[in-house]
Specification:
Layout: E1 2-6, E2 12-14, E3 23-27, E4 33-37, E5 62-67, E6 73-78, H1 84-90, E7 109-112, H2 114-117, H3 125-131, E8 141-143, E9 156-159
Parallel strand pairs: 5-9
Antiparallel strand pairs: 1-2, 1-4, 3-4, 5-6, 7-8, 7-9
Main location: mitochondrion
Pfam families: Fer2
Subcellular location: Mitochondrion
């Protein structure tokens, strides 16, 4: 258990003891001392989940191949439901995803192999608007944040474009 107490100058003091049970922060009767405990370590920021993939179950693995800017190919086993952006970032490929996968930029632009393009759902208006800003747009261009892996696109191959463009409000001043 850790204790938080207010010192005379308003400075917080944390003791070093810690337990692994959960109880909300409570004030000790008649004092300015608070006690709390948690199932996770004390931290002032949230754990970032971006790029953390679920390990595929045995027999349910899907495969995706990225063709990198230098022409090399990398194939990964992934789970259904993972986006191409999350897969690329989890494997340290050069795909930025500046908007965090919210379809508000074109930095996760990929060029889909024509053999797989028709198996994908149609892009919505937001995705088409962002694709208009993408560098090197092709007939089979899509945003990696909008493509979720499924059995319909097992073995999909996507190429990363030679460069990306991150357009922001400062570009128009």
């Amino acid at each position: 258990m850790f204790k938080v107490s207010t010192l005379s100058r308003g400075v917080l003091n944390l003791s070093n003891t810690f337990t692994r049970t959960y109880r909300p922060m409570t004030r000790c009767r008649g004092t300015n001392t608070f006690t709390a405990s948690s199932k996770r370590p004390f931290s002032s920021s949230l754990l970032l989940q971006h790029g953390h993939l679920k390990k595929p179950k045995k027999g349910e693995e899907l495969h995706v191949t990225y063709i990198l800017k230098d022409g090399t190919q990398k194939t990964f086993e992934v789970s259904a439901g993972e986006t191409l952006l999350d897969i690329a970032q989890a494997h340290n490929l050069d795909m930025e995803g500046a908007c965090g996968g919210s379809c508000a930029c074109s930095t996760c632009h990929v060029i889909v192999d024509p053999d797989y393009y028709d198996a994908l759902p149609e892009p919505d208006d937001d995705e088409n608007d962002m694709l208009d800003l993408a560098y090197g747009l092709t007939e089979t261009s899509r945003l990696g944040c909008q493509i979720k892996m499924s059995k319909d696109i097992e073995g999909i191959r996507v190429a990363l474009p030679a460069m990306t463009r991150n357009v922001n409000a400062n570009d128009f001043n």
